[in-house]
Design goal:
By secondary structure, the chain is α/β, with parallel strands linked by helices. It has two domains: about 230 residues, 3-Deoxy-D-manno-octulosonic-acid transferase, N-terminal domain (Rossmann fold, 3-Layer(aba) Sandwich), CATH 3.40.50.11720; about 180 residues, 3-Layer(aba) Sandwich (Rossmann fold). It contains 17 helices and 14 strands. Strands 3-2-1-4-5-6-7 form a seven-stranded parallel sheet, sandwiched between helices. The two termini are about 30 Å apart.
Amino acid sequence: MNLVVRLLYNWLLPLFFLLAAPAWLLRMARRGGLDAQLLQRLGVFRRPAEFEPVGAVYVHAVSVGEVRMALRLIAEWLKHHPEEQFVIAATTSTGFQLAEREASDGVRVIYSPLDLSLIIRHIFNRFEPALIVLIDSELWPNLLHLANRRGIPTALVNARLSPRSARRYERFRVITAPLLGQLKLVCAQVAEHAERWSNVGVLPEALVVTGSLKFDLEGLECPVKRAEFQEMIDAFGPGRPVILAASSHAGEERLIAEAVGQVPGGLAVILPRHAERRRKVRADLEAAGFEVVLRSSFKRPDQIEKAVLVVDSTGELRDWTAHADVVVIGKSFLSRGGQNPVEAIAVGTPVVCGPHMENFEPLITELRTGSAVESVSKSDLSKGLRAVLESAQHRRTLTASATAVLEQHRGATARIILHLRNLLERA
């Protein structure tokens, strides 16, 4: 059955790529990834093969969030084992750019290759990876199958599995179980996730509970205030409470700006999840009567009381968090899933989120149960913001409780590295 599934997958996948190519290429162009680096997705490289880090740990990361985790994992690993070599394979252009900008010296950064057998074989021939590390939940059949055939151990770290995803895996268990059974190590965030992975086909001996890379406060690079950011904020008037919309999605910008407008003195700083949406975000806000100031072309606003700052740049969310009095979590009001609240918590900033934080279970449940986050509906957002800003005691309770919840994940990075190194030694 596994052979039949793989044959079907390898027949359908090229067809899918051909059909999706126009939209895919257009999206890449918008996000700055349509250049010579595109060839890397097809296994074509400008660098001569003899200059590649052969025998490296190959870390597959999808977008910015996964790349940040990969960078953190690698940086901590290199502190104790500087001789180790690494390759980061990023799927998105924003993730690729972040990795190139922030990776430790000597770390090779490439675009993730398409999951076609011919391309994956070429990648393995070029890098001869000693270990493949997948971040979060990204699983590619040909990558796993060919790694298994070559005796390259594969590990899934920071592994999470929601009840909804687990049900999907169960529904197609005849397909997914052989795939998951090829994983030699799965570092689950919490025990509940480990149990779900076991139920859908991960071998019991491959499972360990390590905590979350995302939520590990130990060694976390905390946000820092930047003078240029503060100058922009001061241009909107001194002493105003800064309400940061972190990684907002379509429609949320207007919702949040209008809610902030009901907070006395509140200044809305909106950082969309995708910077290329700047024109649409600007148009939506201006249609609602706001003056929009873009971070990329900053100018002092004419109407301070109706002005909104839109941060249309990438890789700056962490440090904008340091300037916020309250952080509103994007993708939690009008879309499902939510964004990561940890950076805000790490810097001691209270967090307000909407009802849709499914991507961060069970953490969000623990935060809500522990009175560590202000959780509100979209209609009550302004009320929730005022409740946080008007009470210093409430802010202290939120931040202290949130830090306490995250303590259970402290040391997760070190534990994951230990398990990965043990896997390497056994290979």
